[in-house]
Amino acid sequence: METLFQQLYAFAVTIVAGAAMGVVFDVFRALRSSAQPRSLLTWVSDILYWVAVTPVVAGLLLHANWGELRFYVVLGMALGLVLYFVLLSPVVLEVLFFIG
What we know:
Elements: H1 4-34, H2 39-65, H3 71-99
């Protein structure tokens, strides 16, 4: 049985994992918009997104709670995504579009 500290740590890591998913999504979104995508390019970039994100999230979950999928894991990742898109995504996209 996990201690409360271990569960809180795993919850914090899942929030970071959700935010990391958002960052990678914004990078792919910026690349896709600069390429004027067609349907095939959109499909391929969606597959590449999941290929890039899945090992990162799996590694973070293995590190945080031995890869156990619990409700707080899903909740933490959703919370991380929402916080990222509300607070940081506009700034990150502005930087990415300025660079590109």
